[in-house]
Design brief:
Oligomer: single chain
Distance between the termini: 82 Å
Order of helices and strands: HH
Mean pLDDT: 88
Radius of gyration: 26 Å
Helix content: over 70%
Largest sheet: none
Strand content: under 5%
Number of strands: 0
Low-confidence stretches: none
Structural class: mainly alpha
Shape: elongated
Length: about 70
């Protein structure tokens, strides 16, 4: 009979743990500001990727000219 109690306590403990994890995942602040900041981060990442691709392209062209 005590086993049923253990299961119930484990369920409650797990539910509390899941709720704590969910709290940490929620984003804070104004949604519009969050969208703008997320967009800016993506722009920066895209710019860095474009610069890296351009550098690789230039290195490839230089390598071909040396042949």
């Amino acid at each position: 009979m005590a086993r049923g109690n253990q299961r119930e306590l484990a369920r409650q403990k797990n539910l509390k743990k899941q709720q704590e994890q969910a709290k940490g995942q929620k984003k804070q602040g104004d949604p519009k500001k969050r969208m703008e900041s997320d967009a800016e981060i993506l722009r920066q990442k895209q710019q860095a990727a474009n610069e890296r691709k351009e550098k690789e392209r230039m290195e490839k062209l230089l390598a071909e000219k040396r042949r």
